[in-house]
Amino acid sequence: MALPERPRLRSLEAFPFEQDGQRMVGLRDPSGFTDQVAVLPIPLLDLVSLFDGDHAIDEIRDIMAARHGRRLTAEDVVAVAERLDEAGFLDSPRFARRRRRIEAAFAASPTRPAAHAGGAYAGAAEALREQIAGFFSHADGPGSAPGTALESAAATRGFDPRSPQGATSIRRLRDSGIRGLLAPHIDFHRGGAVYAWAYKEVLERSDADLFVVLGTCHAGMAEPFAATLKSFETPLGAVPADRDFLDALGRRYGGDLFASEGAHRVEHSIEFQAVMLRWALGDRPFTMVPLLASFLHEAVWTGKGAEVDARVPRFLAALAETLAASPRRVCVVGGVDLAHVGPRFGDAEPNTPAFLAEVERADRAMLETVTAGDAPAFFASVAADGDARRICGLSPIYTFLRVLPGAHGRLIRYRQWPDPEGTVSFCAAAFS
């Protein structure tokens, strides 16, 4: 199959690591069109970096000869490009066919499959229940898992839910209930205890039957927001999307909510919340509004305002109005992580305890603007240093704050996964 005359790598995620004492760089595809990882020694990375769409094969050979004193054959360069193209890493006609095939299969699917079951979390129902229960009993967790409804919360306070006192207790729980929740989207094995602290709030303080779930789109997308009407499959049962809410939102927005729907196919930030909600609510009927967001990193990089893209304020107004008009009991959930620092994410030096302490200080200062419900101050705090900590939940947190006017939050837990090569911070916070 013919290669493009000027080979071009797709937009990929690169991460450094060492293997057998040798420095390497890995390439992987956050959009999930290939599950392969390309492992490149530094000399090979030098060659592959020239696959930028600007250089023909002969030009690449000339540049490599000038850099290293040895002229590669055209066959050498083509062989590397062919291997990358076959694996789905090049922007090429072959990849275009691969993408069309995968996107068509997703569009035809009546549900959104559980893309990460059996990998990021247990794939069998009983094993998943045990895994999540272990998050609660973990040394950093909130203790054994409570029941799966407000009635259970009332019972733990010594009330029979069927008695007048129990009914009063449930009413009080509702009155002090949560309007919103921030939970992690880091892998379960890293952030399990913080997931437990977050969803303990749902178990004990929420009688919502509609959850608007805002997630980070890690792969980026053409639209600032993307919805899907597909039910999310989980090992514990499906979580249905709320068509009525999305219809009303679409009418108010006036744009296409589904133009970037394919971004939901392998994105984990909402999938993990669907799993936790299905576990927490058990058989209690509820629906979900899955919304991916990706717009604020671009605003930081360009130095423009948070809502300079006219689609953003229009969508935020439409979502706030639809929330206010809904007759349902609604809770807004943000599936978000915070800082991403270290060589794996592009920093020059490994993380040290002193540096991570400074990251925590900056994160907590930022979270004060979040729990105050102040969206402009939150954006300003991240933009002030050019998003140096790479706040992964930037767009959904800003959206969360903008559509919950007057909400004030309580930071429940803040934690870091302290890998010297790549540390991620995350939190749990509840808003009323």
Structure description:
This protein is an alpha/beta fold and 432 residues long. It is 43% helix and 16% strand. The chain has 15 helices and 13 strands. The protein has helices at 42-48, 57-68, 74-87, 93-108, 125-137, 150-156, 164-175, 188-205, 243-253, 268-281, 296-302, 311-325, 353-371, 375-383, 394-403, and strands spanning 13-19, 22-28, 38-41, 111-112, 180-183, 210-216, 225-227, 231-232, 287-293, 330-335, 340-341, 409-417, 423-431. The strands form 3 sheets. Strands 5, 6, 7, 9, 10, 11, 12 and 13 form an 8-stranded mixed β-sheet that branches. A 3-stranded antiparallel β-sheet has the order 1-2-3. Helix 8 packs across helix 10, helix 13 runs antiparallel to helix 14 (375-383) and helix 14 (375-383) packs antiparallel against helix 15 (394-403). The longest helix has 19 residues, at 353-371.
What is the gist of this entry?
By secondary structure, the protein is α/β, with parallel strands linked by helices. The chain has helices spanning 42-48, 57-68, 74-87, 93-108, 125-137, 150-156, 164-175, 188-205, 243-253, 268-281, 296-302, 311-325, 353-371, 375-383, 394-403; strands spanning 13-19, 22-28, 38-41, 111-112, 180-183, 210-216, 225-227, 231-232, 287-293, 330-335, 340-341, 409-417, 423-431. Helices cover 43% and strands 16% of the residues.
**Number of helical regions:** 15
Mean pLDDT: 92
Basic shape: globular
Low-confidence stretches: 152-159
* Percent strand: 15-25%
How is the biggest beta sheet arranged? 8 strands, mixed
Helix content range of the residues, please?
40-55%
Category from helices, strands and their pairing: alpha/beta
CA gyration radius, whole angstroms: 23 Å
What is the distance, rounded to the nearest whole angstrom, between the alpha carbons of the first and last residues?
58 Å
Helix and strand sequence: EEEHHHHEHHHEHEEEHHEHHEEHHHEE
Please report the total strand number as a whole number.
13
